């Protein structure tokens, strides 16, 4: 999903328009992806490699150890060779399965399917909070900043409002803004989604935080791409 200069200009205009009616500040960030989720792929690959030998048992793959009677004792060397070969084959099968599953789970649709939704949400939330702090959305004069964050790979949208907004505005109010952006992202219209979400946020902020006599623009009116 690409954002042209015209796209970014449209988002900047939408932010400027929304902020004219409020003392609040709106900041927008788009991330291509907040995590590689390599740990998820490694976990699935390791689990598959460990459990794979159980699937070989019905095929007759077993290990035979010396029992200790006279006949077995006469063939300890031969059995040691057989056990060594079986262990080598066991390790080879595990290695092949590990690599195959790891590579399979690196395919984006597969990775998204096997990654728990709660994990994706937690990492998107963490990344959004990091951007909230990194761009100073939390240091506006009256603590009235709002971050709109979209993670494209995760198909997740996060909206974070600052302290004073939390005191006056119920969190459920932001659901319409999140839904509007999510809907347009699914339809492949990210700019229209941001425009709708920004407009909704502007209306909420205007209702609770009207513009001051001196109403400086405390945060840049542009879309940040990560």
UniProtKB/TrEMBL annotation:
Location of the TPM domain: 115-203
Protein name in UniProt: TPM domain-containing protein
Pfam families per the UniProt record, alphabetical: TPM_phosphatase (PF04536)
Signal peptide as annotated in the record: none
UniProtKB keywords: Membrane, Transmembrane, Transmembrane helix
Listed InterPro entries: TPM_dom
Residues that span the membrane, as ranges: 42-67, 87-107
Gene3D superfamilies, per database record: 3.10.310.50
